[in-house]
Every structure is written in C-alpha cells, then in structure tokens.
Specification:
The structure is a homotetramer.
Chain A lengths: L2 H12 L4 E4 L8 H10 L1 E4 L6 H11 L10 E4 L3 H19 L11 H16 L3 H8 L2 E4 L2 H13 L6 E3 L4 H24 L7 E5 L3 H12 L3 E5 L3 H9 L3 E2 L2 H4 L5 E4 L9 H4 L6 E5 L9 H5 L5 E6 L2 E5 L6 E5 L5 H4 L6 H20 L10 E3 L2 H12 L11 H6 L16
Helix pairs in contact in A: 1-2, 1-15, 3-5, 4-5, 4-6, 8-9, 8-15, 15-16
GO molecular function (chains A, B, C, D): adenosylhomocysteinase activity
Catalytic activity (chains A, B, C, D): S-adenosyl-L-homocysteine + H2O = L-homocysteine + adenosine
Protein name (chains A, B, C, D): Adenosylhomocysteinase
C-alpha cells in the first residue's frame, strides 16, 4: 500500500470497481496513502508495522464483503490472498466430509499456523465462506515471481480454483519493475536506513536474476566493488561479462560490507554467515520473503543482542565477538520497509499490466477464453503498456513501412517479436 | 572464416568430421586463418574480398563432395548454404516435372539472380544433385537471427527439408554473442576503420535489440551521446531507462556523427538520409545484410563519387554539397569487414552451442527425435555451455541444497529457469 | 550539524578543545545529532528549520564565551562566523572613530540587514566584543568553495584579520567531498524528497565543477539523460568527453524534468525560467546559497501559489498555466535539507583535514609560521588524510624502492606529486 | 609521426615555419603519414620500426639544418631532442676545456651509450655544432610528463639552456590527452594486437594518474574487473571511490589476465612477476619508456623463448613451465606500437597547445618575457584551446552576466578558475 498502489485503486475505482484492500507485507504500508484511500476510494485493511497475526487478520477481513457479496476479481501481489482462499476451500471440503477442523499444530511454520488458525476460526462461523468466494471469483492477476510460482504449482497439481493471469512475466513488468525498480530502490533503502557511503565498499549480491541485475548495477554505479553469488551458470556468466566477480558467500563473507539477497529462494544468508561478518556489515533482502535471511537463526542465537537503531534498522550483536551486523527491515523487503518501494514511473508499467489483466478477465468472464490455468498477457498488450509510457519520456517511435514489415514478417502495428524473444 | 571459425573446424575434425568450408560474408574471411585450415583440417572455399559471384560459387563448391559423397550435417551462419540447397531442390523438382530451367531474369534481386544462375548451370550437368543432398542430410544448425528467421518461415510454409536446430536463440548465443560480442567489435571496427574519437560524438544506433544494446552500451561507455531509433515500444522503453534518447532517424540525421544499423531489417538508412548528413559522418551496419543501408541508392546517386580511403573504408561525396560520408565495409557487417569479428571467448560460447547441436543431431539421426522442424537446444545444454566457460574466468558457482532446490522446484543440477525466462 | 559533524565535535573535544557550535544552514541541523552533542560534548546553537533571524542569532551566540573567554580557533563552513567577526570589527572601528552605528537600511540584501542589525544591537552593549575576539583568534580553517572565496577576497583587500587555512582545496576535500559526496547525496535528496524515478528523465546540471561532475555522474548512472550548462570551456569540454550534452538553460528549460544548480554563482535559474518548465519539473540547488535559484523572484511572482507537499518539498503553481514546479529545500542545499548530507566516509576525509588544520594552527600559534593570509595544507598532510582512510577499504599500497623514488625524484614516503598536479 | 602529427606539421608550415621532423618512438611512425609529409611539407627522419641506433641518428639528422641554419624552435615530445642538444653542449664545453671526448663506455645504459657515441662522432667533425644550436634556439615546447620532468630537473640544476613551455600541464593536455586519449587507445591497442575479449577478464592497471584513470575506465567499461596498484594514497583512494580494488602487483600477479603499466616510473613489472603470470597473460605499457616493464630481464632470462605472433606482439615462453606471456610493442607505448595512437580530436587539443606555445615563444623572443625556465601556458590560452574545440561537438556555452562575473570575481570572458583549480 504505497502511493502508487493508491493510484491503482483510484484507477480501478474510476473504472467502476468496488475495492477492498490489504497489504502484502507487514512493513510496506504507507499510512498516509492508506488514509487517503480509506477516505474516498476503498476499504483499507493495512497499516505500517503489522504483526503477522494482524497481517493475516487484515487479509481475511479484506476478502469479506459480508453475507451477500464477495470479490469478483483479485489483484494479488505475493499470492497471499489467493493462498488463503485456496487453503480455506481445502479446509471447508475436508470439514464437509469429515467434520475435521484444520489443526495449526500440524505445521512447524509459524506463519502457516496463523493461516490455519484464521481458517479454523472462520469455519466454525461459516463453513462455506471460501467455497462461495471461489465460485464467484472470475480470476486473479498476480505480479510477483513468488506468487506466480505458487500459481504454476497449483496449475501443475490441478488445484487452481480460478483463472490466473501472470502479470509478473509481462516484459513490461519483469524487465522493468524488477530490474529498473530495484536499481532505484535498493540504494534508496540503503541510504535512508543507514546513510552508508556506497562508494568504496565491497557489496555481495546473492542472485543475478532481474532483481539482482538491478541491484548489482546500482551498487557498481555508486562506486562499490560488487561480488555476485549464483547457482545458474548462465546468469553467472552474465555477471562476469559485466566485470563482476562470481564467488560463493563463504568466499567473501568476512570481507564484504554490504550483503543483499535477491534470490527468491530461502536460507541464503544463515546465522553462521552473519557471525563471520565484519563489524557493522549491512545485511538486507530485496528478493522475496524474510527467509532469504536466516532471521529465525539470528533471533535464536544464544546471547545475541538486538539494538534497534531506528524502525527497520537493527544492529544485532554477537556475544563472542561483541561485534554486530545491521539488518534492515527485519529481513523483509528492504525497499518497502526502509524506503518507499519502487518509484511511480516503473510501478505505472506494472500496474498498467494489472489493470489490463483485470479488464481482460472481466471482459472474457463469460466466454470461456480463460480456464483454470495461468496465462501471460498477449504480446500486443505488453507492447501497449510500453507504448503508453513513451510520451512522458519524449520518445519518437519509428514506423515500419509495409515493405519492411513484410520483410521481417510482422504486422506494421506489431507485435514485433516472437514469444521466446528475451529483450 | 575467422580464427575462431578455424578452431571450430579443428574441433569438428577432432570429433571425427570431414569438413568443407565456405564463408558467410564476402569480406569476413581472414586469409591467414583460411590458409592454416586449408593446410591441415578442411577444404576451404573462401578468401577476403570475394565478389558476389565468387561467393556463391564458393558456397556451391563447398557443398560438392563429388559423386559419391555429400554433407551429412550443415553448420550454417546466415542460412545461405541452406538456402542454396532448398532452392536447388525446388528447381530440380520443377525441372523434373516441366523441364523448365530456373530463369535468373525472373527476379530483380541481383544476388538472387546469381543463385538462380548457379543452380541453372548445375542442373544441366546433374539434375539430381540437390535432391541427393537433401536426402543424405541429417540436419542443420544455424546461428544467426537472419538465418533462423528463414528457417521458421520454411517451417511455417511446410517447405523445410530437414531438421534444424536454432542455435541463435540459445541464451548463451543471443544474449552473449549478439550483445557482448558487438559491444566489443563495434568500437573495434570503428577504430580500425577510421581512428575516430568516439568520446564527444553523437551516435545513432538504429535498433535496440541485443545487437543494438551492445552497440549502444559500447558507444555510451566510450563517451558518445547515443540516440536510438526503434519500432518496438518495449525496446524503446528499455533504451530510455538507460538514459538514451529515442528519436527517429529524420529527427537527428543532420546532427549525428556516427550511424550504426543493427535492425535485421532493410531500408534503414536511405540515400536521402545520407545526403543530409554532416561532412564525414560515419555510416555502418553491424546487424544483417548490406540492405540495412541503401547501398544501391548510394551507388546510383547521380554524380556521387566514391573515394576509397583504404579497403572497407570509402568516402562517398555528393555532388550538390561536395561533402561526403564515410561508409564502412560497403554496408556489410563492419565488425567482420573492418575488424576481426567477435573475440574468441564469446565465439566459444556460440560455437560450443554449434558443436553440441551437431552432436545432438548426429546422435539422434536414427531415432526420429527431430522432425523437419526448427528446434532450440534444451535448457540444460544451454546451461552446460555457460558452465564450461566459467572456469576460465575464475568463477565459483554456488550449489543448491536439496531443501532449497525443492523450495523453488528445480533439480539441484539444473535446469534452473522456466523456458520463458528472459535473462 | 549532521551526525558527522557531531563526531568531529567529539574528536575536537577529545583532543582537549572546548567547543561551541552553530549551523551553517537553516535546514541542515539534525536535531538528534544536536541533542546528543548538547548532552555531553559542546554547547549547541542550532535546530532544523531556523528562520534567518534565528540563524544569525545562533551564530552570534555561539561566538560568545562570556566576558572572559572567546574562541581561539574557528572551524568554519561557508564562512558566516568569519564574516560576522570581520563585519563586527569593521563596525566597531567605525563606531570608535565616528560613533556611527551600522545602518541595516543601507543594504538591499535582506540577510545582510539581519547581520548589521545583530552587530548594531551588540555594539550598544559591548563596543569591543569583536575586536577582543579577533585579537584572541589564532586562526580559522574553512572548508567550502564559497567561504574560501571570501577569504581570498579579504586577503587580496588586506582586510583578513587572522590566519586562515583553506581546507576546501585539499585534494582529499575538493576531489572527494565535492565530487563523491554529491554523487551520493544528490540522488539521496531527490529520492527522499520526491520519490521520483530518475531513469528515463532529462536532467539539467548547471555547472560542471567538482559538485556538478558528481551530480552529473549520479544522474547518468541512474539512467537519466543529462544536459550540462557551463561558462568555462574547459569544464564544458570535459562534460562532452563524458557523453553529456552542453547547452544553455534557455535551450532546454521547457524540455527537462530535473534541474540542479551546482555553480557557486547566483541567478542561475530565474523565475522566468521556472515559468517555462514542464508541470512538476523539479528544481534544486546543491551548490551554494539559495540565490543560485531566484527564490525571491519566485516568491514575489504575482499570483504564484506555494503548496507545501512536506517540509522542504514545495510545489509552486503559476497562475497563467496552473502548472507547477517542485522546489526542494526552499532553494537551499537540497542534500542537507532533504537528506542527511554527505555520508560519513567522505565527511571523514573532509573533517580529518579540518582537524589537521586546527592542530597545525594551534601548534604554530606562537611561531609566526602563519601570517594573516590564506594557506592550503602541505601535500604530505593531504596524502596523510588519504592514507588514514585506505585501511577501512582494504587497500594495499605499493611501496617505492629507493631506486624508483630517485628515478622520479620524490621521497620514498612522499609527497608524490608536484603542487600543480590535478588528480 | 602519426596522421595527427602530420597535420601539426602542415599547420606549422602554413604558419610560415620550415620544419624538419623525427619521431619520439622507434615504433610509432606511420609510414604513410611520414611519406605524405615528406612529399610536400617537411624533411622527415623517421620510419616505423627503427633500431635505437637509427632512432638517434634520425634525431641528430633532423636537427642539422646545414652549416648556416638551425632550429629556432623545438616542438618536443619526450624530450629527446632537448636532451641531445643539452648533452651535446655539455660535451662541447668539456671538449673545449679538456679536449676530452665523451666516453660511451662510461655508462651502463645502452641507449645513453648510443647518445654519447653520436655526440662523440659529431664532435670530431664540428666541435661547436650544439653550441651554435643552443644560441640560436628561442625555446622548446614539450608535451609529455617524462619530458617535462627532465626540464624541471634542468631548471632546478640551473642547466636549462633556453626557455621551455610545459604544454603537458595545460589542462587541455593532461586532463584530455592523457585521460581521454588513453581511454580510447588502450582498448584499441589491445584489440588490434590480440583480439582478446576484455569482458570478464581481470586487468591490473599499475598507476592511477591521468593515464591510469583513462585505462582503468576503458577496461571497466568494457567489462573487465580492474585492480589498481598505486604508491600515492590519494590516487589510491580515488580508485577505491570508483569501485576498483587497490592491491600490490604481488597480490594479483598470478590471477590477472591483462597487465598495463601507466606509471612514468621504471621497474614496475619485473621478470620475476612475469614468470608467475598465467599462460597468455598480456603485458603492456602505455605510460612511458619501455623500462616500466623489465624487458632487459625478460630478454636475458635463461632459456626464455620469444615467438613473434606478428609485429609488436610477442609471446615469451618460460622454460620451467612452458607457459608464455604476450608482450606488446616490446614494452614500449602499446597505443603507438600496436594501434595508431590517440585519435585526432584529442590530439588536436594537445597540438593546439603546442602551436599556441610556439607562437608565444616566437612572439616574445625579443622581449625577455621568457627566461631559461619552464613555463606553463596562461589559463586564458588553455581555455581558448578548449573553446576552439566546442563547436565541433555542438556545445552552447553559457555567458556570465556582468553581475554574476562580479559576484564570483572573474572577468566575463575568463579565465574562470584560480591557478590551483584541479578540474
């Protein structure tokens, strides 16, 4: 719930939607944006600095339109709303058959315990709530790598309950928001949280996907020496071609000043890495969930002390060495927690994709065009998103002649590239 | 036929192949490399500075193993060998049915007239040559955007005569050779041909695909102010995000110092553009055929004078203004004509793809795995190409744990990305 | 009064000084830093958001040690403390001879009216205050271009009252703080104040000195297209060599998105420029006083409306067009007003120069080494500042052999460069 | 004797001079440029690939105008002509007093033995040649760091025989030719000599002065990982601020792929370093004389084998390991030996300084303005050189108002900066 999200809500409202809103991250709500939206555009269930309990309570509340209503469409970011509905439906089906309620103690995952608790408590009051919701739902559009991965898994398992549009893999999303957004918001977050001089520092970027590429570019340009860690040999070779060293975290853990995780995976920086870091090394995550960094291991490290410098900026001091590291945003997305997220221009690209996806789902709701599968937007819509943003930057596009279009076998008005084109 | 191609030939020979070789470009043969190969590895039909007649004669000769032999596999670059065989077969089929010989005057295209002439002349001597050839052929692997486009057109038309592997769209080809290769070889060609100082100049890059991105990066880094022309709004927006201005050629034609075409299309810089350029503006092509630049229009411009500064560097003077422009490599690929092409490291990536493709075609020749279609290499082979090149650059890859691999749903040993991933 | 200044104060205190402190800028005091210092290290006369009256009251108060004391040394930044003393002494001399008090109405400059008022009011109470102060003063060290310029003018006019060390022109100040400091703090200030995406925007940097070079580099690296304005042909040629366009403000005023003044001069962006800017163009100053931007003209523009978005971020709307521009920090230094100034590492270089200068002045106070002139630090001290900062960044210096040192005629231990060397 | 030098000669000739010319480097003469000049503008004593004997013979011959003439002015580059005259005069003075001839065996330096031999042989024929020469000489202008260092030493020793203008330390020379010239010509030389892909390689730049800065920037931008060696802590800190690692040669000698010396000192890369390098590591010098690299040690290394790949590109194979390194231009300036030196635009800046210096010396020859000392050009002439080059790059300078000029205390028409300004 940033200013940019607020404009998205206003846009959807202007298009005729009735909107209810919750956040995708306990730290990322900008309270002034939430307040503005709450006053005139949508019901808002979010504030900066929620607990996990509050976060899931908000998610559940946002989905509740009262007895006769419910969402027709979901605009998702991270997939938590979609997850809650799917888990809810699963529990209701089990309950209908067996009268068994979901058991939070059946999982070790603290956050999932909360999800199960919320479903269990709701089930007692209304054993068909999520089932009615899924029956009404026309579809979801999802914009993160993480959320999309879940959708494809559900598609593969045959458990996806409604059509989904993967907005994340629009070119105008993944190659813009992920890359250029992070190139902007990583240094922004570092500066606001720590005021550290980036020039001259050694920075480790874990992962060299689109997010990692944006982060590495930003750090290199600001004068840091950047070292990349990668599992994928192709991405590793790309890093090398840009003059970046590719090493393992173990190789550099005690030498670097700044560590950034961008992997979308878990267990990237473990407490045993953190113990070996230099005093006041900065550790942050811009990739995915807080489990990229071993926050659990850190919190439970015997004798560790947490000193909050300011909100979202904590110094953790290890007892053996009395040296400490600076962890940003409690291991969660630092650009949302410590700065204001991605800037408007790039979010406009992403959200234009979201709006176009929502319009498409709604327009085709009765045609059967979209089954219970995951779709990407067709390329001409992707190109349209880009075209809509060129005027603001003063660009003049060149027009193909008929002859040229025929020569390269594309329509004059596009789309111009085959589906596999990588940009 | 560069030094790198020579090593490819030596590699194929070492793997057991008997190789015959011709060039894909009338200017790109390095005679010392050709001589070395001719002396010990392969029959070579190429030299630097062929006429178009000689070029196609070479192509035809390279394919001729004598009465009892013929190629089993083709390693193609630009698709001219594949084209000749397809046109040859088509002509032989017509001839068999109708006794009609191909008529060179049936086309306006000067180069295609040569092709038809060669086929016609061969047809009289042996009316089944190309037919026998296509029957023997196990497949082709092709490495250029241009050649691949032709293959897909033949696949679409149902005229493709044997299986084809599209090596161009391996990530380790298109995102390396095209991008990093041109980032190296464009300034190399400019410097060798003209010694021009790039810093401070205004450079126009027509097209912002992988080749254009490499060229624009090289020119920007060398201190030029770079302006991009594009038809595709997505690529245009990428250029803008890198701080490059996006305008039409008309907007800047009389202001810029250096013009580079990278489009893969035709009719990009016309003689009417060239007339308006500043004195000694440099015009060159690194994208595709010489028809990116209107060489025909230039040559036929009334009163134009061509002054050859040195081979591949011509000054063309217009009679009205008595000012001239510098055209490199007669409008053909300037990095091959004016420098030595791409450097070995990146060509090794491309050629490793070629070798792997050739091995794959040969291994599967009897299994029916490959039909008369166009295939890209599977991602694990693409990743293997990258992995083979990391050691030379001192990289240490990170290994996934089992737990992490499960978490992101990939095998520990890869492949790590979904097919649509863009890198 | 940033965190870095606080550490400087603690350092001076630890070296034995008794410190009183005021700010050099009405917006730049970080209240938490001021509070920390006030509690244990020094008397502080500064807070964020002073009026000009309050600012000069603070300056006067900071200099007042009571009847028996007074400053022995001044650490100056911008030269206002030095100015006040010089103006005070001048007024006291006139008063002693003529009994004339200074007349604030004798000047049009609103700020100088305040200075004269403060001196006039003080003069009635104690007509010898500044005279006693200058007699006690051993010297001043000054770190800004602006302050140094005043000192050289006073030296040229023969009015300098005590020795001065020009810390600004230490290499480890001007080529670090001005260049690398601004490269960091300009985007920091822009992001914090406006969250604007820099990539894709057109930015005008007025002035290409060290500050301008840092700003232009930061903006270019962040993906802006940067246009430079310059009066000096050498600096202009440097900009061109980096691929930056050099134009006048008039050429681009209605096309650009971001305007930054870095000149150290006045009247750079006038209200007539601002009227022609695009809606929501951002205008800011990182060079010098707020008169780089015509704030007076803006404030007095008929019908103009000021909308404060948040402190230090104002939108000024012109009545004719109803479009507005965003002015940062009321035209004062935006990196101090909208962000936290330069980061610690580079300020450490600057302040190490200050401390070394203070130690030098104090050590030589009785030797007559320093006359009433302006001095720069000797090169071996400049090199020492750099050497003290290398360890933190993991650098290993190479040592000259005796033979090599003789060959290039420098001592093994330095200094290594002639005085005119430009770095 | 490059194309650019040829234009300088034509310019001097057009201004009325009679010119005789020799080279400053045994490899750098471009024979086509020399031939063109010899045919219509000046007597030329130079060819590509001289022996050292031939080189000094050429220098002596170029200075010999026959019995009645002699040079009035010298345009020097490296100071060898100036050296020969000073050594000649010294020898003639000794000879006049003592009848002792110079003894080549009095020195270990092979090149200086040649100088003494030439002087000795000339002395027998004409014992007053150099004395007459120095009496006629109005002055010299010198453009290299190395040549200037010698001039200042002679000034310090009181042995300078005529006025000298240090053109090297014009801003428009040292901050342009050295920096931007090398940024262009280092990769140019590497590419032409070796075709090596720079991206992904580890490059060591020895020295981070202007030349080193240009080289490091070029290598970094081309995708290399750059490590700098430095003796000067200030330059080292500058490298760090650009994200470059600062280490000693010993730290990285066995890890790097490309080594470049830029120091102006001797004994930078010794044979014991070269023995430890990776196979096919590239070693080159762009700083100064060939003694930056221990060519003598390499040539005399027991069992070493030299394999000439092509002129100026030698592979030296060590017997113990049978691995070899690639040495460019026999350790001499690789941009002159392997490419064509700096491009015209930047050489035009340097040579405009030379021409202005020559005009100044000649205009003031009778006024006594210039004594037997070393002078730099006044800043207004330095600014004039820059101003003359702006139009070609399309720049529009801003003009100061009278009010602004007064405010910063400079004349409206410049010069704009104090002498110590570093740019």
């Amino acid at each position: 719930m940033t200013i940019q999200t607020a404009v998205l809500i206003e846009t959807l409202t202007a298009l005729g939607a009735e909107v209810r809103w919750c956040s995708c991250n306990i730290f990322s709500t900008q309270d002034h944006a939430a307040a503005a939206i709450a006053s005139d555009s949508a019901a808002v269930f979010a504030w900066k600095g929620e607990t996990l309990q509050e976060y899931w309570w908000c998610t559940e509340r946002a989905l509740d339109w009262g007895p006769t209503g419910g969402p027709d469409l979901i605009v998702d970011d991270g997939g938590d709303a979609t997850l809650l509905i799917h888990e809810g439906v699963k529990a209701e089906e089990v309950y209908e058959k067996t009268r068994q309620l979901p058991d939070p103690s059946s999982t070790d995952n603290a956050e999932f315990q909360i999800v199960l608790t919320i479903i269990r408590d709701g089930l007692k009051a209304d054993p068909k709530k999520y089932t009615r919701m899924k029956e009404r739902l026309v579809g979801v559009s999802e914009e993160t790598t993480t959320g999309v991965k879940r959708l494809y898994q559900m598609q593969a398992n045959g458990t996806l309950l409604f059509p989904a549009i993967n907005v994340n893999d629009s070119v105008t999303k993944s190659k813009f928001d992920n890359l250029y957004g992070c190139r902007h918001s990583l240094p922004d977050g570092l500066m606001r949280a720590t005021d550290v001089m980036i020039a001259g520092k050694v920075a480790v970027v874990c992962g060299y996907g689109d997010v990692g590429k944006g982060c590495a570019a930003a750090l290199k340009q600001a004068g840091a020496r950047v070292i990349v860690t990668e599992i994928d040999p192709i991405c590793a070779l790309q890093a090398l071609m840009e003059g970046l060293q590719v090493l393992t975290l173990e190789d550099v853990v005690s030498e670097a000043d700044i560590f950034v995780t961008t992997t979308g995976n878990k267990d990237i920086i473990m407490v045993n890495h953190m113990r070996k870091m230099k005093n006041n090394a900065i550790v942050c995550n811009i990739g995915h969930f807080d489990n990229e960094i071993d926050m659990l291991g850190l919190e439970n490290y015997p004798g560790v002390k947490r000193i909050t410098i300011k909100p979202q900026t904590d110094r953790w001091v290890f007892p053996e060495t009395n040296t400490g590291i600076i962890v940003l945003a409690e291991g969660r997305l630092m650009n949302l927690g410590c700065a204001t997220g991605h800037p408007s221009f790039v979010m406009s690209c992403s959200f234009t994709n979201q709006v176009i996806a929502q319009l498409e789902l709604w327009k085709e709701k009765a045609t059967g065009k979209y089954e219970k599968k995951v779709y990407v937007l067709p390329k001409h819509l992707d190109e349209k998103v880009a075209a809509l943003h060129l005027g603001k930057l003063g660009a003049n596009l060149t027009k193909l002649t008929k002859d040229q279009a025929d020569y390269i076998s594309v329509p004059i008005e596009g789309p111009y590239k085959p589906p596999h084109y990588r940009y």
